[in-house]
Amino acid sequence: MLKVLLFDLDETLYHPDSGMLQAGDRTITQYLCDEFGFDWDAAQELRVRFTHQYGTTAAGVEAQFGTSQADFYAATVEQVDPTRYLQPARELDAMLAAIPAQLHVFTNATRRYADGVLRALGIAGRFGHVFGIEFAGWRPKPALQVYQRAIAVLDLPAEQIGIIEDNPANLVPARDLGMITFLLRQDHETAHYCLADILDLHDILCQEKLCPQRGE
Ligand SMILES: [Mg+2]
């Protein structure tokens, strides 16, 4: 039985069509142009390359240019107003409210950014912890230590923790450690369950008897 669900934030708790993530990416590309003199296309290429190489662009900028990740995030994605891209998600809020497990956010974004996104979606009150990038010493998923630290804080066997992601790479350590893995909008060997839509999560938890039924 799952006692806890860990939700990724970006493009998991909101849909890619919102444009929220792309707005953040534009601030990062612009930052690389302004701070380091790249032209737009070179900055775009670097942003993507750093993400693949270091897990986040911020980690790459810190490693290569010495800028602290806190300063990088404050100057980039934290400048985006989430209410321009995201609206209160009432169906999602109701679905989360119906899940008989503790819900937490587990994201490579900062706490400040995550809190803004959750408030814009009107679901901030549904989550206990928001495990942001600061939580594991600015080390991003899919580093194994990040998952191990979350398990230690939750003080539960991994088998009682579910994780919901849009990025299959972030499910690899979770599954290796024994968590139950849910992947959005695609099929992948790392996923125990695939969800066409985040709103399907409650039904799958019930159908597969992964959470205690009401009254149990
Ligand atoms: Mg994501």
What would you say this structure looks like, in words?
Helix 1 crosses helix 2 and helix 2 (40-54) crosses helix 3 (57-65). This protein folds into two domains: 4-14 and 87-207, Rossmann fold (3-Layer(aba) Sandwich), CATH 3.40.50; 20-79, DNA polymerase, domain 1 (Orthogonal Bundle). The chain is globular, with a radius of gyration of 17 Å. Helix 8 (172-177) links the parallel strand 4 and strand 5. By secondary structure, the chain is α/β, with parallel strands linked by helices. The chain has helices at 20-36, 40-54, 57-65, 69-75, 90-98, 111-121, 144-154, 172-177, 201-207; strands spanning 4-7, 102-106, 130-131, 161-165, 180-184, 193-195. Residues 8, 10-12, 166-167 line the site of magnesium ion.
Topology:
Layout: E1 4-7, H1 20-36, H2 40-54, H3 57-65, H4 69-75, H5 90-98, E2 102-106, H6 111-121, E3 130-131, H7 144-154, E4 161-165, H8 172-177, E5 180-184, E6 193-195, H9 201-207
Parallel strand pairs: 1-2, 1-4, 2-3, 4-5, 5-6
Helix pairs in contact: 1-2, 2-3
Bound molecules: magnesium ion.
The site of magnesium ion has 6 residues, from loops.
